[in-house]
Amino acid sequence: MSNVPRSHRVAAWAVLTATAALTVGAVVAWCVALPAFTATQLYSLVDLMDGVVYGGVAWLVLTRQRTGSTMAGWIVASVALGGSLSAFAAQWTLLHPGPAWLLSAHHWAWVPGLYALVVVMPWLLPDRRWTSVDRAAVGVGLGYLALLVVLLATGPPPAGLFPLPSGVRDVRDTLARPLAPVLPYVLVALGLLAAAGAAWRWRRGPADQRHGMGWVTTGSVLLTVAFLVTVLPPVVPATVPALLILASQAFFPAAVAVVVLRQQLWGLRLAVRRTLVWYLMTGGVVGAYSVFVTVLDRLLPITSPVPQLLVTGVIAAAFQPVREAVQRRVDRLVHGEGPEPLLHRVAHSLGNPSDVGTAVAAALRLAEVRVSTDGPEPPAYDGGPPVTVPLVSGERLVGHLHAWPRPGELLGARVTEALTGLAPVVAAVVDLARTNRDLSRSQRRLAEVRDEERRALRRDLHDGLGPALSGIALGLSASRNLLTRDPHRADELLERLIVELTSRAEDVRNLAHGLLPPVLADGGLGPAVELLRERYALAGLTVVVRVPVPLEPLSDAVATAAYGVTAEALRNVQRHAGVQRCVVTLDRGMDRLRVTVTDNGRGLAADAMGPGVGMHAMRERADGVGGTLNVAPALPRGTTVCLRIPLEPL
Known about the structure:
The chain is an alpha+beta fold. The chain has helices spanning 6-33, 39-64, 71-95, 100-108, 111-119, 132-153, 166-179, 183-204, 213-231, 239-263, 270-299, 306-335, 339-347, 353-364, 413-485, 487-515, 518-523, 525-538, 556-577, 613-624, and strands at 368-372, 387-393, 396-404, 542-546, 581-588, 592-599, 628-633, 639-646. Helix 18 (525-538) runs parallel beside helix 19.
């Protein structure tokens, strides 16, 4: 409440104190006088209820309203003060004939506030930017109230409060005489117009401002119809209009409470929740006790204590379950949905973090909820600083959940607790969405790399092995022609063809083993790398294989990925490093396998990390088993290829 003006807080407590004192005084005076229950007493009951209900509402609004127009707070304060003063004046005059101002208060004190509920209050809901129609309607309503108060306060006793000189009184009577029969109908017309405006905003207004407006429309219509009955010719008993006003006054505050709580207007928070539960439970207990005791008194002997005891026992047994049911509904009205419906909404938005934010914002009635995966800084939003909750999946930080309250509100502990409780679920959704994106990307890249590997294999066969075999065929034809003319040259040519054919056969074996060596399935990763070492030794490259601890057992997927990366790294060393020696280290830990290929050759070229087939193949193999690949310069020179693959603990 630190942002609420001090004058508002002082006025709120003054209204609450005065209303409470006048209400207690009215009840005490009624208990002393014990008047007959007439239509006048019914109207006094309406005034008394206005003081009790609107006194608490005025205190809540004035002590918590930070933004928007404060006119609604002053209207409910005038209803509370006018109603309680009118009720006290009506009961006091039964005991004492004066003073005159108190006697007159019974006739006019309730008018400003109660009539303002009819012609002005519906235009103030929901709290929004006023249009020209809103301003005109509120201006006409306030002008009507001012005229009516002036006419009542300057009227003849007992209603008049300010007696006028005879000349001025004649002018006043001349002006008021034609207006008196019209003003009640003007009230009804303005009330129906206000109800129509509320109905239009209910059906045509922005979606986030429609919550509860149907209740306000109904309450405004009921209140206007109740006043219409009072101005029509008396065709019904005098108590009927009073009962209608009493019923409408019981409904209208509830309607206003619904729209205020559902849209969280005027900064009302936990006090509303507790006060509303107290009102409902108190009224329910008193009403149930009165009804049940009255009914049982008629069925059982008058002297029997059974009705009181039976009803007391039933109410005591039902109190806690009923209170919990009322508490749940009030909590939903004030704070939004509980955790289970909220989790249900989040579950239906799996796979899309933006849908999760929309579901959480709608359920908790927040202005905006967004999920960010780039860092702790919230996304740009014109709504003040948000509440930020980290999203952790397992032990990894996968993002942050940012929530903004609606304008003029603060995020209470209950909303923060709900967001914190939701964080693991939202983190799982974000992690799942990211995994799905990475999987889709990996599948696309895997298909691309497979196509590249096929094209590379075709190039090796078409551009390497094909021409070589064609050359060998031409050499054999030439040898056959030389056999009879120059056997010595034919023998030399056949020797060269044998060497070429042996080399091409080795290339074919290298291609076949590069795809998937049979020894990998038979003997595992260690023997397969040993075969690579032997093959490259024949080609002039010394490969030192280091295996600090036994590698097996390894899954087929892990072994294949490790072998593929090792084979591609050795091929790059032979082709590009310009060295005769490199080191391969196969190191298995408790929960990971690390494969390192290091040479001291030329080092990385400027485009070595580009989209080459070999680099793509190594990275895709690493991604396929959840590993990471790092290609970096070695010290003092050369290149290091390091593959890390997570393993299940031994």
